[in-house]
TrEMBL record:
GO terms for cellular component: nucleus. GO terms for biological process: DNA-templated transcription; positive regulation of metabolic process. SUPFAM superfamilies: Zn2/Cys6 DNA-binding domain. It holds the Pfam family Zn_clus. This is Zn(2)-C6 fungal-type domain-containing protein. It comes from Aspergillus caelatus. GO terms for molecular function: DNA binding; DNA-binding transcription factor activity, RNA polymerase II-specific; zinc ion binding. SMART domains: Fungal_trans, GAL4. Its main location: nucleus. PANTHER family: HALOTOLERANCE PROTEIN 9-RELATED (PTHR46910:SF3), TRANSCRIPTION FACTOR PDR1 (PTHR46910). Transmembrane segments: none annotated. Residues 129-140 have a biased composition (Polar residues). Residues 113-142 are annotated as: Disordered. It is found in: Nucleus.
Length: 676
């Protein structure tokens, strides 16, 4: 008589792979041999039964090699189960800190487990000689809109090389490879850096990103960092703070990796970043202010390593969480930090929309938030009673943030009016009028800046590094946006040769078009001139908005390389500058990218892309084209090169902080902000 199969076996019989009669509480085999009989009461699921049935069928029909593989798979699972039981036993004997370190490493190890083995499946065999296609390592191209410098460079390539040759050469881009390529295995605990180093890394964040995006409180950060060594590591409520500091340490570690040294580049910042991801797991299920801060700090690290697409998605989540807790309707003065958080997301949203040419996530008509107060000291003061910064200094620090909020509203208008996805309903003459109007708004914004933020004036004997860096950031933003305002009218005979309406505009508004062309070129030159006095990579990274600089420098240098080639023999440059000066300014940007390429994949790709662009020649187009021009006397003084004081030159380093990343296609946007 065939023995009936029992539904569940005791733990001892399962471990020995012996037949169990299923009798409880003590089975017949354990009773006979005197074993201790335990029951885990784990009922087999239908999926497990199905897998076992499938395995039995494979065992009957597969060749000997497959049978051996299945046996090895069963042995593997038994071994892994033993290891898991051993780990669980050891874990209970560890203190809280060691348990957290163990969990951190285990999560990384389990992610690397082969999927087939993790599910207990035997890999399928196709027909003989058939090989399964390997997953492509190439990232699918993502969408970039008309305002993106990648879109502009692509348009130039297609006009010069033709669409067929351009496709063969590949799309231009400077995005960093997938983040998973950089993540390292956490084979040892990396919970906290030494205390002194932790404060140094925090200070890097406070002196670069925090002075531009003050959504956090300096005093609160210092208090939480001090208590970081005393908190219960297993306290779930404190996990977001651990995630936030891990991302801050990642930023500080990356910034201090410049200049590049002879030894192999450090991956410490990626270790901190991976740890931040571990501590922030499931953060999207908890809409709170601290969760939004974690996502925002994560965004700045992603920008620094040119993971712009991932930053775009992360910021989108932060904005939705902010709307979930009502940050878009913050009205009371007591909620100053909520207002700073909302406007930090607003400014960053405009920045990414400008870099990628995609629609903005925050619309001004859907929100009503007062600007942060100039007297709000909580962002920069170290102590509630003894302020290390006097009231005037704090007010001046907040003035920068308010100025950038108003600047971002102009960014919104530039994207909507000049770079909308479809320009069917917007005639070129309307665009020209809009460009002139937006340029006037930008000039008025600059004139309205407080004296200590005027990057076009001298600041003799001033010692504040923070003010110097803020002026550098404003200078980069101003010249970059001004170049973008007039870029649609650059090289019209080349880039719009088949657009009849643009050719009509060129003939009917020669004076205005020449003004727009020169304004675009001069703004790009002013951006490049900010680099003239940068002494090394570290000063570039710390004194300029690093998260934005790669995008701004590619925009400026691409305009200059194209202008040098297109207007080389034309009188547009006569009396203003020369083709050689234009090329020299473009070469400065290229040299910066080459210097940064040792520590930045994006800078290396940008250098390669611009190197290729620098060899393009438009002689055939220029020779057959009549491009109108105007005299220097017709151009307002601020547009002429050399009008800006040399004081702003040392600020270029910090502008690099807003690195631009990833892939390329096309887009649009929205929103307005209160005026100062």
């Amino acid at each position: 008589m065939k023995r009936q199969r029992v539904e569940i076996a005791c733990d001892k019989c399962r471990g020995l792979k012996a037949k169990c009669d299923g009798r409880q509480p003590i089975c017949g085999r354990c009773e006979g041999y005197g074993f201790q009989c335990n029951w885990s009461m784990r009922r087999r699921t239908a999926a497990q039964e199905k897998r076992d049935d499938g395995a039995d069928q494979l065992l009957e029909n597969s060749p000997a090699a497959a049978v051996e593989q299945l046996a090895n798979l069963a042995s593997y699972h038994q071994m892994m189960e033993s290891y898991e039981m051993l780990i669980d036993e050891i874990r209970t004997k560890l203190d809280a800190s060691d348990r957290l370190a163990l969990d951190l490493n285990l999560s990384n190890i389990r992610r690397q487990k082969p999927r087939d083995l993790a599910h207990g499946q035997l890999p399928r065999h196709g027909s003989e000689g058939h090989q399964q296609p390997k997953p492509s390592s190439a990232t699918p191209p993502s969408y970039v809109g008309k305002v993106s410098e990648i879109h502009f460079i692509r348009a130039v390539h297609r006009c010069i090389q033709g669409p067929e040759l351009s496709e063969l050469a590949g799309e231009p881009g400077y995005g960093s490879p997938g983040l998973s390529d950089h993540l390292v295995s956490l084979n040892r605990p990396l919970l906290l850096p030494p205390k002194e180093e932790a404060y140094q890394l925090l200070n890097v964040y406070l002196s670069t990103i925090h002075i531009a995006y003050p959504f956090l409180s300096r005093k609160q950060l210092l208090e939480e960092l001090e208590s970081l060594w005393n908190k219960d590591c297993d306290n779930v409520e404190y996990q977001p703070w651990r995630a936030l500091f891990s991302f801050i340490f990642a930023i500080g570690s990356y910034y201090t990796s410049f200049p590049h040294r002879k030894e192999s580049p450090s991956s410490q910042h990626f270790r901190y970043f991976q740890q931040g991801l571990y501590f922030s797991y499931g953060i999207d299920s908890n809409c709170s202010l601290i969760s939004i801060w974690v996502l925002l700090v994560q965004c700045f690290f992603l920008l620094a390593i040119c993971q712009t697409d991932r930053c775009w998605n992360t910021l989108g989540l932060a904005i939705r969480m902010g709307q979930s807790i009502g940050l878009h309707e913050t009205l009371t003065e007591s909620r100053s930090q909520q207002r700073r958080t909302w406007y930090s997301m607003y400014v960053l949203d405009r920045l990414l929309a400008l870099q990628l040419g995609r629609p903005m996530a925050i619309h001004e008509e859907d929100s009503h938030v007062e600007l942060p107060s100039l007297q709000d000291q909580s962002a920069f003061a170290m102590d509630a009673n003894e302020h290390t910064l006097d009231d005037i200094h704090v007010s001046s620090m907040m003035a920068y943030f308010r100025a950038v909020v108003c600047f971002s509203s102009i960014v919104s208008q530039v994207i909507r009016e000049l770079y909308r996805p479809s320009q069917i309903d917007l005639r070129p003459d309307q665009m020209l009028h809009s460009a002139s109007s937006l340029d006037q708004q930008l000039a008025q914004w600059k004139e309205g800046l407080p004296r200590h933020l005027r990057f076009d004036r001298g600041h003799t004997f001033e010692r504040s590094i923070s003010f110097k860096r803020q002026r550098n950031m404003l200078a980069v933003k101003f010249h970059h946006l001004r170049a973008l305002i007039y870029r649609p009218f650059l090289c019209l005979p080349l880039l719009q040769a088949h657009n009849e309406s643009y050719m009509d505009l060129l003939m009917q508004h020669k004076h205005e078009i020449s003004h727009a062309e020169w304004a675009c070129i001069s703004a790009a030159q002013e951006t490049a001139k900010l680099l003239h006095y940068v002494v090394d990579e570290q000063s570039l990274v710390h004194d300029f908005p690093w998260w934005q600089m790669i995008s701004c420098l590619i925009c400026a240098s691409s305009i200059l390389f194209v202008a040098e080639a297109f207007y080389r023999d034309h009188d547009l440059l006569e009396g203003r500058t020369s083709a050689s000066c234009v090329r020299d300014d473009a070469e400065i940007c290229l040299q910066v990218f080459k210097a940064l390429s040792a520590n930045s994949d994006a800078a290396k790709k940008a250098a390669d892309m611009l190197e290729h662009l620098s060899h393009l020649r438009f002689s055939a187009v220029v020779a057959s084209t009549d491009v109108p021009s105007i005299s220097v006397s017709d151009i307002p003084a601020p547009l002429v090169p050399g009008c800006w004081p040399s004081e702003i030159s040392n600020s270029m380093e910090w502008s690099i902080q807003f690195l631009d990343p990833t892939t390329f296609s096309r887009g649009d946007s929205h929103f307005n902000a209160p005026h100062l």
